What we know:
Layout: H1 2-7, H2 12-16, H3 33-41, H4 46-53, H5 61-66, H6 70-75, H7 80-85, H8 101-109, H9 114-117
Amino acid sequence: MVHATSNLGYDRKGWNKPGTNGVEAWSFHDLYENEMVGAQGLGIDDEMWDCHINHYDGYWWEDIEYYGYAQYFNELGWSAEAWDNGEHPETEDLYWDELTSKQQAAAAQLCWHRDLWNEESIPMWGE
C-alpha cells in the first residue's frame, strides 16, 4: 500500500472508491515518473492501468480509433465529436442493468463490470 499512498496519492477512502482519485484520469504514459513507479510497484503495467484504471479516458479519440477501441465507445454512444467536446452520452447516466446486452459487452471490453460501472465502493463489490 506504500506505493499507492506515497506515489499515487491514495488514501483508504480513495482506494476503495474507484474513479475518485484524479490520477486515474491520466493514461499510463501521461503519469509522472513517480506515479508510474507507484503503479508498477502494485503490479500494474501500462495496459492494465489504461484499461482497468483509466478505461482509456485519458486517450485522444484518434488513439482510441488507432487501437481499435472506437467500436466499443461507439456502442456506448460516444463519437469523436462528443469525446473531443466533453459531451457525455446518455449511457453515462445509466446503471449497468439499464444498458443493453451489447452495451454491457462493449463496456466489458473497456474493463468495466457491473460494480465498477455503478460506482460501488470496492468493499461492496459482489453484494
